[in-house]
Amino acid sequence: xxxxxxxxxxxxxxxxxxxxxxLFATAIAALPxxxxxGPGGPVVAPPPQSTSIxxxxxxxxxxxxLSAPGNAGLVAQSMRNSAELALAEFNAPNIQLLVKxxxxxxxxxxxxxxxxxxxxxxxxxxxxxxxxxQAAGQVARTRGVPVIAFSTDxxxxxxxxxxxSFLPESDVNRIVNYAFANGKKxxxxxxxxxxxxxxxxxxFKEAVARRGARVVAVERYEFDxxxxxxxxxxxxxxxxxxxxxLIADGxxxxxxxxxxxxxxxxxxxxxxxxxxxxxxxxxxxxxxxxGGGWYPAPDSxxxxxxxxxxxxxxxxxxxxxxxxxxxxxxxxxALVKTQGGQxxxxxxxxxxxxxxxxxxxxxxxxxxTNERGLAVLRVTPSGGQVVSPAPKxxxxxxx
Length: 399
Fold this sequence. Notes:
Oligomer: single chain
Shape: elongated
Mean pLDDT: 88
């Protein structure tokens, strides 16, 4: 087990074969375009902004929408800082980060990737937006260079283009598996009538079927007080046939939905309410209708420790997704230190044993998606209470 400074465990649960996230992720859900083109209207080339961090021999590209307007640029800066923090905390890493700005556009990402590869980058970290990931990935694949990207849109994943983000499929798999293990055999779900909801619905049906359980009903809804009534009442009608109801949304909608379910006769003591990682929010904890609900999330201890160190260095809190760039940078530094010329090969990056990061264990699948070791928490007024700890290692194949 390799270690970096301050006692942080990072890499390699085991490195096999000499050594295998509306918007969807918790923090990125608020960003416009994070699963698509990105903010800012028509595609234009970003202003050239390139810097470097570190002086090592192995060059690594970090592509982020640093000049994108609004929250996207703020998130990008926090992720850039986190990568810098990872290098500072790793013991003398032999890498140099080539920081490239894609402006939040696919054309910018294509140009940034090409420039980084021309400068000798052996791997690309980022971009953030799905279409930017696809554009950078196309350039990288022509040169046989792998990508570790941060989009939560699994359509951006491909062989050699690995997503490190928090994927909604991982949330659904974890909560369904836990519910099934605790006697829940019939399920219903309320999902947003949008792209996120479509992903959740497909993952939900697959996860339930894999367990040999039953999906009684799935209802899609628009976030509108009037239009939500019909799908909610449809779920109420079948509530006596189900053991658990998944409400796949965040704190703007979930309390209203839960309150209406209960007001129409659903008893949460008999019918378990389930959520996704979007439930990890104080507004969820404060709502009595959601007390006792189950949801998946990373173990919070890692992020809290990371946040403290980030705050000490930069004088402000990191965005929630800043751990992605930290983990990607630390992973690359560790592989450079331990794996020699095979450091970024497919066999190393897709090791079934996976890796350990700020938010727990993770591994990349062959198709570019990932699997994360998540905890299951119960909603209480004082916050999420762990009822099933996050795994410390993976068992079985990750393919």
